[in-house]
Write a structure and sequence with these properties.
The structure holds 2 protein chains of 2 kinds.
Chain A (H helix, E strand, L loop, with lengths): L2 E4 H15 L3 E5 L15 H5 L4 E3 L4 H13 L3 E5 L3 H4 L3 H8 L2 H4 L9 E6 L14 H5 L5 E3 L4 H13 L4 E6 L6 E4 L12 E4 L4 E5 L3 H14 L4 E5 L2 E3 L3 H11 L2 E8 L4 H13 L8 E5 L8 H6 L4 H20 L1
Parallel strand pairs in A: 2-3, 2-4, 4-5, 5-7, 6-7, 10-11, 10-13, 13-14
Antiparallel strand pairs in A: 1-8, 6-12, 9-11
Helix pairs in contact in A: 1-8, 3-5, 9-13, 10-11
Chain B lengths: L2 H27 L13 H8 L7 E4 L4 H7 L3 H8 L23 E4 L6 H15 L5 E6 L6 H12 L4 E7 L2 E2 L2 E2 H4 L5 H5 L6 E5 L3 H16 L5 E6 L17 H9 L2 H9 L5 H7 L1 H11 L7 H24 L5 H8 L10
Parallel strand pairs in B: 1-2, 1-3, 3-4, 4-8, 7-8
Antiparallel strand pairs in B: 5-6
Helix pairs in contact in B: 1-2, 1-3, 1-11, 1-14, 2-3, 2-9, 4-14, 5-6, 11-13
Classes of the chains: A alpha/beta, B alpha/beta.
């Protein structure tokens, strides 16, 4: 049965379901228990499950994430909430040096059923230290998996799948998505956790995107449709691994690739997406793949500059039109 | 102390010394490469602490952990094979010297980023406390690690939630090449635990019996639900930080002073009856008086028994080197299997 919920509520339902189903699930983080979570994600759970299952931690990102690693080594299923990805920089030793390495360097003796949730992204005038995306940093770590749910339904599905997986998984949320709404049907069967989804069909170009940029890409596709351009929009849902097959199947049809990412362009997620798809689709692309990405600067505090520093619908529409126009010229030539 | 326990501790100390000196030899021959951090001089800590632990306790260790693993009961064969990078090693050749793991013996790994053992141990202890089990975690680290943020963060959490962790500082006075007074404003490490109200003591880490006694007492406190404990063992490594380090920054007289206190020689001196002149020479000049003091007491070990132990550990080490040499190399498929050990055939895409 489908209902309309906020993104944070979908995450809350997922946590509640798994806390109830499995005694080894615990939640750790700053203000996750008594306060109910900075974005309400853990609201009501402390009263239900108590302080040993929902643990308010000191402001010690490195060590409470490392604590999650230790607890996972002996069979707990910790869900660590880091308030924002910017703070997760202090926990990279636990995530990269420990969680991603221990299963491997123990010769396969120790699974790592650890989930680390954190929001990234530009929200509303939080300034340079609170507005980073940083997903590309985690993408280059073998041994990690990264899910980037863009909708309440995916947030619910992917968090539950991550909790039940024995691999270390990062759930990369977005501060501007917590209070967006969408339909949630908890009875639906989830697709594989890392399967990309075609969110809109079209024949003229493929827009590959993820997280909050999905919404902007879909809105751009509507405007493009009015201009007679059919944009297919793919929500990656996962940044590691990447679902190449869904993307290549679409590109075989549209022959034009536009990647939309909020993070700054240089060596960002889009660079890997474009490289991987060019390797696979080079001979049937009609035009060089393009990226719409954030500017190469720390996020400005000023509202207008902040908005201009990341992709807007108009930027996506422009880039798509140009991509289609350029390749038509090429066709004629 | 039971004579049997004493003899076992002595045997483990001798095995530790022989294993490490042989590892150094194999490194020189090129059979072991990479970083190799050796333990001679510090044996009393590993042996005293781990002989006081229960099999159900968890051990979290550092990159200088071969001896912790051996004393915990990992066969010398699989430890040496891991140093050689072989498939038969305790981490399948994927970890190496600094990353020994053994799930069965609750040896939760060697961690090679200084300060990592604190949160890992605290997390294991969190799970124990949540499940209300009578187990404890032993967390090893050196004097250099206490300046990492994780030390303070983890002690704070362990104390706050009364977690069953025994923090064991192996204070060998040097963080690689920097002497403790040049790296710590408070060189009495145990005093820093007091900031978090973790009961802490400083113990002579060259005296295996003192180490053993202090560990038993600390573990008893932990098991009665009183939260974490902290023991600082003052010890010394006779070699450099690793095989790449000659240790030339240390005053000769300092090294000599600690060598005179060599825990292996001391424990022999404490246990052997009626030693020969040769054994007195081995024990070192500073120990002769101490040894003579024991001549009248009933010894626990004859010099013939001591010889037998020496022969036994030499054979164990020899066999371990043979085992490691003859073992197969791991394949890339083994590496993939280790990486995906937790995938259970799950479909990713």
């Amino acid at each position: 049965m489908s209902e309309n919920v906020y993104y944070w509520q979908a995450l809350n339902r997922a946590l509640d379901a798994d806390l109830a189903a499995d005694e080894s699930v615990i939640v750790l983080g700053e203000d996750v228990a008594l306060y109910g979570g900075s974005y309400r994600v853990t609201e009501g759970l402390y009263a239900k499950y108590g302080e040993w299952r929902l643990r308010d931690t000191p402001i010690s990102e490195g060590s409470f994430t490392g604590l999650g690693v230790g607890a996972a080594l002996v069979g707990l299923r910790p869900v660590v909430e880091i308030m924002t990805i910017n703070f997760a920089l202090l926990a990279m030793d636990a995530i990269i040096n420990m969680a991603a390495k221990i299963p491997f360097m123990s010769g396969g003796q120790f699974p790592m059923p650890l989930v680390v949730r954190m929001p990234g992204g530009v929200a509303k005038q939080l300034a340079a230290q609170h507005s980073q995306r940083l997903e590309q940093m985690l993408m280059n770590v073998p041994g990690l998996r990264i899910a980037v749910p863009a909708t309440p339904q995916d947030a619910y599905w992917q968090l539950r799948q991550a909790i039940r997986s024995d691999e270390p998984i990062i759930i990369l949320e977005h501060e501007s998505l917590y209070f967006t709404q969408g339909s949630l049907d908890v009875s639906l069967e989830a697709p594989p956790m890392h399967r990309a989804q075609v969110s809109r069909q079209g024949n003229d170009l493929t827009i590959v995107t993820y997280s909050r940029m999905l919404d902007l890409s879909l809105r751009s596709a509507e405007q493009l449709a009015e201009k007679g351009i059919g944009a297919e929009v793919i929500d990656l849902r996962s940044l590691r691994p990447l679902d190449w097959e869904t993307c290549t199947a679409s590109l075989e049809k549209t022959r034009r690739l536009l990647v939309v990412e909020e993070d700054s362009r240089f060596a960002g997620a889009g660079a890997e997406i474009v490289a991987g798809l060019t390797e696979r689709c080079f001979y049937y692309l009609d035009a060089p793949p393009q990226r719409v990405a954030g500017l190469e600067m720390p996020t400005p505090f000023n509202a207008a500059l902040e908005a201009a520093s990341i992709p807007r619908v108009a930027d996506i529409v422009d880039a798509a039109e140009k991509l289609c126009a350029d390749s038509q010229i090429k066709d004629k030539g | 102390m039971e004579p049997d326990v004493l003899r076992k501790m002595l045997r483990d100390m001798l095995l530790a010394r022989a294993f490490e000196e042989r590892a150094a030899g194999e490194y020189t021959k090129g059979n072991i490469s990479g970083f190799l951090h050796l333990y001679p001089g510090e044996e009393a800590v590993a042996v005293g602490v781990l002989h006081a632990a229960e099999p159900a306790d968890y051990i979290v260790s550092t990159y200088r952990e071969h001896v912790h693993a051996l004393v915990r009961g990992l066969p010398a064969n699989v430890v040496m094979a891991e140093l050689f990078g072989k498939k038969t090693g305790c981490s399948g050749g994927m970890g190496g010297s600094m990353h020994l793991f053994d799930r069965e013996r609750r040896f939760m790994g060697g961690y090679a980023i200084v300060g990592e053992t604190f949160p890992v141990a605290t997390g294991i202890a969190y799970a124990i406390a949540l499940r209300e089990l009578p187990e404890a975690v032993i967390c090893f680290f050196g004097d250099g690690a206490v300046n990492q943020g994780t030390f303070h963060e983890s002690l704070n959490m362990a104390a706050l939630w009364k977690l069953p962790v025994l923090f064991v500082c192996e204070n060998n006075h040097y963080q690689i090449g920097t002497e403790i007074h040049r790296h710590s404003a408070v060189a009495e490490v145990y005093k820093r635990a007091g900031a978090y109200h973790v009961p802490a003591r400083k113990i002579d880490g060259m005296d295996v019996l003192a180490v053993h006694r202090a560990t038993q007492e600390a573990l008893a406190q932990i098991r009665s639900g009183n939260g974490p404990q902290f023991l600082e063992f003052e010890t010394y490594r006779f070699r450099g930080h690793s095989m790449a380090d000659p240790g030339s920054y240390r005053p000769k007289v300092e090294l000599q002073a600690f060598e005179n206190e060599d825990p292996v020689k001391v424990v022999i001196a404490e246990t052997v009856t009626y030693p020969s002149a040769g054994e007195i020479a081995i024990a070192g000049p500073d120990n002769i008086e101490r040894l003579k003091g024991h001549l009248d007491s009933n010894g626990h070990l004859s010099s013939r028994q001591l010889d037998a132990i020496r022969i036994e550990v030499a054979e164990v080490v020899e066999a371990a080197v043979r085992f490691a040499s003859e073992s197969p190399e791991p394949t890339l498929a083994d590496a993939e299997a280790a990486l995906n050990c937790n995938r259970h055939g799950e479909v990713l895409i």
